[in-house]
Amino acid sequence: MSDSNNTNKGGIGFCGLLAIAFIVLKLVGVIEWSWLWVLSPIWIPSVIVIILLIILIVLKIRCKRRK
Prior knowledge:
This protein has about 70 residues and is mainly α. It contains three helices and no strands. Helix 1 packs antiparallel against helix 3. The model has no long low-confidence stretch (mean pLDDT about 90).
């Protein structure tokens, strides 16, 4: 018998819960937002990560050119 201590800390997270809340509010008719903004908790974190990766790549290229 193996006594491994595996703990998975998966889950939906804050952005997922916020997206679900916005979707429910939109479907119930409480908010009249565009679907673009209702689904923004899903795509905004991805956009931020992509922007940060682009900044890091540009900085790395600049650093190599200086040498």
